[in-house]
Each structure stands twice: as C-alpha cells, then as structure tokens.
C-alpha cells in the first residue's frame, strides 16, 4: 500500500480542506450546505482526527466511503488503529475522547481500525498554483519530496518508519518553535492537530484546526485554489521571519 495519495487538479469544481472534525459530522454537513458544497464536482480533504470527543464519531466510516471526501490519518486514527491489538491503553484512550470506541463491540473496533489503517499519511493535490500537501501534524523533513519518498520507502527500517509516522501525526515542533522555514517544494502545506482561535500561517504551512469540537471553536475551510479561508480570516495571523 502507499502512504501518499496523489490527486490531479479538479477542473470542474472546488477543492477545500477542513480542520480536525473530531466527530462533529453533523455540524460539518451544515457548514458544507451553507457553502453550497456540490458533491458531484467539489472535493473535501480532511487533515485527519475524524473521531473522538465529539458526538458523531461513528459516522466516520460513512464519510470515508464518500467519493468526494478524502482524509489523511490523524493521531486519533492512530489510536483507533492500535487499540484492538492492545497497543493503546483503554484508560488513556478514553481520556483522549475514545470512550465511544472503547465501548464499541469488538467487530466495530476492528472495522474502525482497518478503515483508518487504509488512510494515507499524506495527500498531495495538484492546483493551478502548484502542488499542495496535506497531513495531520507536521512534515518532519526539509522538503516534501524527502518526506513522501521516505513514507513509501520499502527499505526503511521499522524503527525509522515509526519515527516518521509519529512526527507526521503527532509533532508540534514547527508551531512551538514558530519555524517559518516552510516546505519549499510545495505551494502550501495544510495541517491541523493544534487547535487555534483563528487559522494561522507559518512560512507556507497553514494551520486550519480552529477546534470545532471545543466550546467557542468552529470549522475552518481553506480553498485550495485561492488559499482563502472560510470563514475569512478576520485578522491574518502570520508570523514574520525575524
Ligand atoms: Mn491531532
């Protein structure tokens, strides 16, 4: 299997990416309706964390099956993948919003684990302005090419692969360091994972998780053609290189 999924340009409709969903699929549906999202020609890309904390996590399987919906795996998918094989502590999982799945019958836990294990770690989308990368947390290499080649490198040691996955799904290094170096061989990298009051841009890395599942949070969408957000950024929070 491949851990990088490539998409050609959408020449008939619009492409959006949305921040962490965390089981808020009904709210997401309402927002898409308000945007006039047309599933016959528009596409929605998800930065992962489809499940946990919110009310409708079990709908994730239906959404994954939609031909217009394309998600990378987040660290919450990682937990659901690991849980049935005993590689995720139940109390820790429940404390992170996974109680709904801890309580699921085993066949459902396996169904979620399998479905999430089939999700790519990285998505890349061709746009008129250049290639856009999508992943959950961070690109742990100086270039997108180094990262995607390493994801699918059959000769990589298991230990090294684990470290690359771990960083892509869990790391907050770039945002904590306020690192504006960006990913130079991409037009833009779109990530979630770190809930912010408003979307933010670090170099060419766009942070679009505005914590829809949390009180006061909401969904941020980014139009991949224009890199404009919906809702529009009220105050463009952008780090400047020092
Ligand atoms: Mn996350």
The figure for the number of domains is 1
Query: What is the helical fraction, as a range of percent?
Result: 25-40%
Q: Quick check: average pLDDT?
A: 95
What gross morphology would you assign?
A: globular
Question: What is the H/E string?
Answer: EEHEHEHHHEEHHHEEEEEE
Ligand inventory: manganese (II) ion
What is the level 1 CATH name?
Answer: Alpha Beta
Largest sheet: 7 strands, mixed
Give the beta-strand count.
Answer: 12
Supply the key terms.
Purple Acid Phosphatase, chain A, domain 2; alpha/beta; 18% strand; seven-stranded mixed sheet; 242 residues; Serine/threonine protein phosphatase; Ser/Thr-sp_prot-phosphatase; binds manganese (II) ion; Metallo-depent_PP-like; 12 strands; five-stranded mixed sheet; phosphatase activity
Short description:
This protein has about 240 residues and is an alpha/beta fold. The protein is built from 8 helices and 12 strands. It is globular and about 45 Å long.
Could you characterize what this model shows?
One of its GO terms (biological process) is RNA decapping. Residues 72-77 form the Serine/threonine specific protein phosphatases domain. Pfam families: Metallophos (PF00149). This is Serine/threonine protein phosphatase. One of its GO terms (cellular component) is cytoplasm. The protein is an alpha/beta fold and 242 residues long. It has a single domain, classed as Metallo-dependent phosphatases (Purple Acid Phosphatase, chain A, domain 2). 31% of the residues lie in helices and 18% in strands. It is built from eight helices and twelve strands. It has helices spanning 25-34, 60-65, 75-82, 90-102, 106-117, 144-151, 158-170, 173-176; strands spanning 4-7, 15-18, 43-46, 69-71, 122-127, 130-134, 188-191, 200-202, 205-207, 221-223, 229-230, 237-238. The strands form two sheets. Strands 1-5-6-7-9-8-12 form a seven-stranded mixed sheet. It has a five-stranded mixed sheet with strand order 4-3-2-10-11. Strand 10 (221-223) and strand 11 (229-230) form a beta hairpin. Helix 3 (75-82) crosses helix 5 (106-117). The longest helix is centred in the middle third of the chain and has 13 residues, at 90-102. It is globular, with a radius of gyration of 17 Å. The mean pLDDT is 95. The structure holds manganese (II) ion. Manganese (II) ion binds next to helix 3. Manganese (II) ion (MN) binds next to helix 3.
